[in-house]
Design brief:
Layout lengths: L1 H23 L4 E7 L4 E8 L9
Antiparallel strand pairs: 1-2
Length: 56
Amino acid sequence: MKRVILLFSLIGILLVTSGCLNDMTGQKITIQKRIGEENIFEDFKEVTEKNKWKKP
């Protein structure tokens, strides 16, 4: 029983730390604009800077 709890604890810790590591690799945000009246979009701009789109 202790091994099962230890295994699940270890898996949980690994999942949490791997999720936190994704934040350090950076993001790529693609901004799109709508063309005409239909739901057709084209890529307008790509943002890779971490703090460029921070809310005031």
